[in-house]
Amino acid sequence: MYEDKTYAAVLADAQAEVDSDVLKTEGSLTFNALSALAFEIEKLYTHMSYINDQMHADTADFDGLVRLCADRGITPKAATSAQVSVTVVSGESETLIGKRFSLQGFNYAISSITSATEEAGVFTVVAIATVEEPGSGPNNLTGALTPIDYVDGFVSAMVTEVLVDGEDAETQTALYKRYLASFGAEGFGGNIADYRANVNSFAGVGGCKVYPVWAGPGTVKVAVISASYDAVSSYLLAQLAAAADPTGNHDGYGFASIDHNVTFVSAAETPLAIVVNLTAESGANTAAITAEVKAAISAYLLDLREEWAESEYEDQTVVYISRIMAAALGVPGVADVSSVTVNGSDANKVLAWDEIPTAGTITLNFS
Fold first, then answer.
1. CA distances from 74 to 54, 56, 173, 247, 273 (A)
2. Given 3.30.300, 2.60.40, 1.10.260, 1.10.10, which CATH number is that of 185-266?
């Protein structure tokens, strides 16, 4: 805001106010006095510019944005830990609670037992474990666990499913989006904005679409996408249902309004079979092009899923053929893209309100 108020500019303005018969060249007493003053005034303008920036959400730094958000009742989301389903085969059952395991640098602690069966003194236990390190790192991680604590008669332990995605701490960009959204529809009394705010506050939820009156008066359907922008587990859906209507009687003791019958479903993953017919530049590495084109198309589909998370139920997700062609053409070494088909058709793919696009098979044909 005060970019023109530099040391040189302030000094020149100050010198202009001094009578011409006074010596004010560099090294003179007047110059030295004005120079020190100009330096301090420049710092003052710098501080004033910083303070002005902190008054506006689009120019504030993260700490300043947090203070502005607090005035709207918005707080930044802290990082959360993933929860997973674990199957442990050993000589223990209930005593497994609290036992710690590791997988590829992440530590898991068993928090509850889902089921346990015994055969000849060996227990097969299905349990829920929480990752000790918060964040999105282990979201797609499954496989064999190594015990950290002693487990009597240990045979095996396996992460079989990620139930709730871990989330990284909210970024400044994401917080700014929530700040701007707070000036739109205000959540109140079970309206769409209210349901969205409540559902999106859950750890592991990346967004949702709320379909009001979907099966008659008093019915609400909420499609939910995970923090990794894919389908959510039945475990997380059950948590949402319990928070919305803990008694199951639609009596308003959860965040669902009185007499609202709320149904929670996962966003339905729709795998797409994409075929790209293209020409490579002379001498280009087709193997490298294939990998990069697949990554570019997958990134485009991820963008669509992220947009889905912030859209309304009336909005349909459209997978555009032209966007797939543009993604492929943006890869170095691709000279031309002659055609693209999605699920055998060269028309844009229009998805239902609760569907999200995922990469099924991506095939590249070089000519």
1. 17, 16, 14, 29, 41
2. 3.30.300
pLDDT in tens, 276-316: 999 999 988 999 999 999 999 999 999 999 999 989 999 99
> Collapsing DSSP states into helix, strand and coil, what is residue 91?
coil
Contacts of 49 (CB under 8 A, 6+ apart): 1, 2, 3
Backbone angles phi, psi at 94, to 5 degrees: -65, -30
Provide the Cα torsion 55, 186, 194, 304; round to 10°: -70
Per DSSP, the three-state class of 303 is: helix
Give the domain ranges of the chain. Answer: 7-54, 83-164, 185-266, 270-366
Average pLDDT, the chain: 93
The two structure tokens encoding residue 208: 């949702």
Token pair listed for 48: 């004033």
Q: Tell me how far apart the alpha carbons of residues 206 and 310 are, in angstroms, rounded to a whole number.
A: 9
Chain segment 169-198, per-residue pLDDT in tens: 999 999 998 898 888 766 677 899 899 999
The amino acid at residue 209 is K
Distance CA 212, CA 220 (A): 5
pLDDT at 185: 66
Distance of CA 109 to the CA centre of its chain: 24
